[in-house]
Each structure stands twice: as C-alpha cells, then as structure tokens.
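User: quick one - fold this with asparagine bound?
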Amino acid sequence: EYQAVHNGTGHTVYSGTVELTTTRSGSSYNLTDGARGNHRTYNLNRGSSGTGTLFSGSDDVWGNGSPSNLESAGADAHYGAALTWDYYQDVHGRSGIRGDGVAAYSRVHYGNNYVNAFWSDSCFCMTYGDGRSNANPLTSIDVAAHEMTHGLTSNTAGLRYSGESGGLNEATSDIFGATVEFFADNSEDVGDYLIGEKINIRGDGTPLRYMDRPSRDGASKDYWYSGIGSIDVHYSSGPANHFFYLLSEGSGTKTINGVTYDSPTSDGLPVTGIGRDKAEKIWFRALTTKFTTTTNYAGARTGTLAATGELYGTDSDEYKAVQDAWAGVNVGE
Ligand code: ASN
Ligand code: ZN
Ligand code: CA
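Assistant: Sure. Structure tokens for the protein plus asparagine:
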C-alpha cells in the first residue's frame, strides 16, 4: 500500500518537542525515516535480542516527555539518529555510516535497569538501555551520536578496540558526540564538551565524561604516558578528547553556553584554539583518510597533522595549533 514520508512530533525525554521524520503506511504511522536511509527505531520492551517491534501508532505523535511512556525514548533515539545523519551529511558530506545512503537502525528499552548503550557491527545497529531504575534511558543526543560514530569508525579507520587505538576509537565517538550536540542547537541541546550530562548515569547528576580536563571524572587521563594503552579504552580516550578541546577552544578558562571549562596543558604552555568548525574537519579527515586499525597516539598526531596540512597548509596557524594541542597532552615528535 501507499507509504509516505511524514513529519511527526516527538515529545522526547531529553530534547523537548522535536520534529521526527516518520512514515505513513495506510492508516498508521511508524518510526521509519524515509529521508535518511530508512533509519528505523524499534521497541525491545525490555528484551535483549531481535528487533522487538517497530514503533507504530495511529497518530503521528510520539511520547509525552516522560520515560514511563515507552514512546518517549523512542522519540529521542529516532531524533538523535536523524541529527547524527544530518551532521555527517551537512558538515562532512558523508551519506550514512558507510557513505552509501543506507541507515543503521536503533533499538530502545534493552534489558532491565540496563545502564549502557552500544553499537554492534553484526546488527549494524544502536541499542539503548533504560538506565537507572528504568527511568534514565541512555538516549541523549551525545550518547546516540557516540554510538552511531562507533559504526563510522568501524567502517573507516577500523581503530582496534584495545590499547591506544581503542582509546582513539572511544575519543572519536566522544568528539562527534559533542559536535553533533552543538549541531543540534535546539532549545534543550545547545552543545557542550561534556558527555552524558543528561542521563544521570552516576545517580548524582554528573556527566559521564569531560573533554576540557578528562580527569574530572576520577578515572580518565588528561595526558598521554607510556603505558596508557593498558587502561580501559573509556579512560585512555582522555588525551584525545583533551586534544580536541584544546584545539577547538584553547587552554585556560572559558564559558560556553553557560558551562565553564578549565583546560590545562601538560607543559604549562598556552594553546590558542582554532574553533570547533575547523577542529572537527581535521579529526574527520584524519579518521577517514589517515588512521588505520593500529593507529596509536603518535600516529594520531601524524595523521591529524597530515590532514591539517591538506586542509589549511603546513605554514598555517591551524597546523601550529595542532602541534601545540598535541604537545599540551604530552604527545610529541
Ligand atoms: N557505551 C559503551 C561504548 O559505547 C559500550 C561499551 O563500552 N561497549 O563505548
Ligand atoms: Zn563508546
Ligand atoms: Ca553533552
């Protein structure tokens, strides 16, 4: 029967009221985004395998803003995937994770009190738990973009998920998790260099990770050191997250969208930022054309410098800033 791309309304848990691209099929609607590679959002209803059921209903209004309404987190996931799709298309000219115009799919309400979200290559899909007390789904924009970016990394550099390359893989997801949130720029998501500040993952309302000074989380490293490849990839990501913050915003104290950051350097020397718009282009180019499965921190420095040289020239302020930002996190020649 006739199917049409439709504009629905989502009442999300974290992003307020948003427009969702949906599909009308006969007399009902479903969460299939025909404008973005047919990205679909499914309800696992606390199951942990398969696809559960595609969200569908007789009106085109999804959720009520409360996580107790099962459609609400579905609206967040559908919205986060759409934003991330638009970000890669509009900012980097890439059509979907593989660049082939085909979308991954999303699954929400995975398991019971499941406090995590993850990407899987085997299903080519993002999956979200409902978090603490099943009341804090892990579906904020930065987390959704983080998980979808694991798909991008897997299909480009393929950074191996252990050792230093694992930290760079994790940082890539945090970096684009943050840039997608800035790209969203809606009333509830103005953008920050914090990851997971909305999902109350620790129960005290603090973010999962901080890019200006990663050690604020009590475990991540601010600076590279020999042996960083032996710690958890969510902590060895610290120096690369910190590099990206320094390259974008520079060292020292700065307030952006009401959040105050204070970013130190390992050598005590100041770094002058070049802005997020340039920094994200450098990281994307390095990820997609320089990094490989075994790239380590030294290789990330070389790769980002090569990307910067191609984009802005080797005599540019941008090239100098990339050198300074890596020095600031103790990655040198
Ligand atoms: N949320 C985690 C991540 O995306 C899941 C994991 O570590 N497997 O890195
Ligand atoms: Zn991750
Ligand atoms: Ca954030």
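One thing worth noting: The pocket of calcium ion (ligand 3) is lined by residues 142, 181, 192, 194-195, 197 (CB under 6 Å).
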